[in-house]
Amino acid sequence: ERVEVLHREGKEGLGTAYCAGFRHALERGAQYCFEIDADFSHNPDDIPRLYAAAREADAAVGSRYVKGGGAPDWSFFRWLISRGGNLYTKIVARTRTVDTTSGFRCYSRRVLEAIPLDRVTSQGYAFQIEMAVACHRKGLRVVELPIFFEERGRGKSKMSWRIILEAFWRVWELRFRY
């Protein structure tokens, strides 16, 4: 009774899925919305910490790159792409968030009402970047908590060169749009 599944026809991308889920939750009175990988790369035991932090701020990000966090199972190449992408975003889009690509987050209702979700256009990991940039530009307070990102036991990453290229170009667009 406490779980609802939102079914959509066809693949429309990660960003539109999150926005649809956020709208669905807000319509039902949710005060906080979470993002979490369903493959247990993110530890569900960290949800209470994210929630408590978001209650004190506007949003909370589970960060691999603040003191105490990490992704110990990653190859150097994967770490380099992720860290490089985050640094690139920080410089180009001028955000304060260290881990802009983290998909483990808690947003308060006020964040999701302040950001016009119908104008969020990014897909893939660029969605996380866009939300970080939008929060920053709206003056919303985002805190980062250290987490350990565990490598999935089964399945494959959806990371592709197309997603990387989208993020590369989208960061420039976001710099000027928000």
Q: What is the helix tally?
A: 6
What share of residues is helical?
Answer: 40-55%
Rg over CA atoms: 15 Å
Head-to-tail CA distance between termini: 39 Å
Profile the largest sheet. Answer: 4 strands, mixed
The geometry reads as: globular
Strand content: 5-15%
Total count of strands: 4
Structural class: alpha+beta
- Which blocks of ≥5 consecutive residues have pLDDT under 50? none
Quick check: average pLDDT? 91
Going across the major beta sheet, what is the strand order? Answer: 1-3-2-4
How are helices and strands ordered from N to C? HEHEHEHHEH
Sum this structure up briefly.
With 178 residues, the protein is of the alpha+beta class. The chain is 43% helix and 10% strand. It contains six helices and four strands.
Describe the protein in words:
With 178 residues, the protein is an alpha+beta fold. Strands 1-3-2-4 form a 4-stranded mixed β-sheet, with helices on both faces. The protein has helices spanning 14-27, 47-56, 76-93, 109-114, 126-137, 161-177; strands spanning 32-35, 59-63, 105-108, 142-146. It is globular and about 45 Å long. 43% of the residues lie in helices and 10% in strands. The longest helix has 18 residues, at 76-93.
Keywords:
alpha+beta; four-stranded mixed β-sheet; 43% helix; 6 helices; globular; single chain
SSE map:
Layout: H1 14-27, E1 32-35, H2 47-56, E2 59-63, H3 76-93, E3 105-108, H4 109-114, H5 126-137, E4 142-146, H6 161-177
Parallel strand pairs: 2-4
Antiparallel strand pairs: 1-3, 2-3
Helix pairs in contact: 3-6, 5-6
